[in-house]
């Protein structure tokens, strides 16, 4: 039971340590998938849009993490 | 494709596996020092046997998945995994999170194992601790190998890279018999984060059947972009953390 719990915690740690980053990246990919299947975007633009969205999500996640850490420290 | 991608794939698997192997080794070493080598060896070997069985069962199933679906799934997983590592490495290097300390982890594990339990129970708990450490960190190694080696002909270089890392950590650990605290874990995490993120973005686009310009060369450009971007973000986080006391 202990091993299963630790295993679950590891999987959680692998993908969900920062939900903003994980969900944001997944949302970007889903949005792009929908746009691709609807042929709403020229195929040549898709990789660059994907890169731009991922970098945007990443910057947001880093900023939120920093704010969270500063708040934590100010409470101590 | 294979010649260009094999070296970075092996390197990514090697660096990522080194980080995981060091973490597992710290706990196995603590078990070995506190309770002797027997529970450490039994726990570690049992976990390795379980990992081998899991890979043997699920590994062949990967070949049955259509290539674009596989590229998309692997790309997304690599991207999430890589971005997570890169984020943590940036926050640690920027001073927002404390650096991982293997000596502290070793002391904590040793203390937990020494805490009152009967002799028989203590051996059982120690073996279980080694089993858990090798299984959990080994799962991450297996995941990394399967993910970075998912392209055609890339599983072997990925597996070789990971195996070399595990053997190197084991050899170094047996030689010095101390926690490998001097391994620059955060720098490794940063490097692996850039590699996995670059590959992840590339494979995700391939999965959409909308590849990046310049074919496989785009991988190098993406990895370099994540590296430069990561360094800039590290400086940015350091800047924010240096001014944080004034804001609170």
Structure description:
Chain A is an all-alpha fold and 76 residues long. Chain A has three helices and no strands. In chain A, helix 2 runs antiparallel to helix 3 (46-75). The longest helix of chain A is centred in the last third of the chain and has 30 residues, at 46-75. The radius of gyration of chain A is 17 Å and the shape is flat. The N and C termini of chain A lie far apart (34 Å). Chain B is an all-alpha fold.
Report the major sheet of chain A: none
Mean pLDDT of chain A: 82
Q: Ranges of chain B with pLDDT <50 over ≥5 residues?
A: none
What is the tally of helical segments of chain B? Answer: 8
First-to-last CA distance of chain A: 34 Å
Oligomer: heterodimer
Q: Which overall shape of chain B is indicated by the principal axes computed on the Cα atoms?
A: globular
Note poorly predicted spans of chain A.
none
Helical content of chain B stands at over 70%
Gyration radius of chain B, to the nearest Å?
Answer: 20 Å
Q: How would you summarize the topology of this molecule?
A:
The complex is a heterodimer of chains A (76) and B (248).
Chain A: H1 2-16, H2 19-37, H3 46-75
Chain B: H1 2-35, H2 37-58, H3 67-93, H4 102-114, H5 119-148, H6 155-176, H7 185-207, H8 217-247
Helix pairs in contact in B: 1-2, 1-4, 1-5, 1-6, 1-7, 2-5, 3-7, 3-8, 5-6, 7-8
